Amino acid sequence: VSPEYCWPFDGSRGEVLIRLPTHMRPTAITIQHVSQMASLLGTDSSAPRDFTVSVSLCRALGGLDEKYKGETLLGIFTYDMQKEPNQTFPLQNGVSRAFHLLKLHIWSNWGDRRYTCIYRVQVHGKAVGMNVIGQTH
Predict the structure, then answer these.
(1) What is the mean pLDDT of the chain?
(2) Which pLDDT does position 97 carry in this prediction?
(3) Which of 35, 93, 127, 128 is 20 to 30 Å apart from 28, CA to CA?
(4) Which residues contact 90 (CB under 8 A, 6 or more apart)?
């Protein structure tokens, strides 16, 4: 993780849909921001603060062009800039199904009004795939 390589978005709010490589039952999410000491500006005010994670309920493979059927909230979290830059958040609402799209919605950051930066997002969970005869396992 280098200070100059992040996913920046305008302002303190933003969202991204993450297409998972396979259907998954997500159990946790890890968010990473650069440490204050490594920051080129000596501040981490662009770090995300309050955010939610949800799964997108779309048909079939979860493509963005498919029929939208809503979302299921998996948790409300706060990234604490006083802790380690790499923070893992266990999802609060258990999921019994597998999903292909995960939505990360950043509601606020730690004070930078111009932009918010995210350096890495990792989704943890159990992959659910198809076997050779097309049965889900």
Answers:
(1) 80
(2) 77
(3) 35
(4) 27, 28, 75
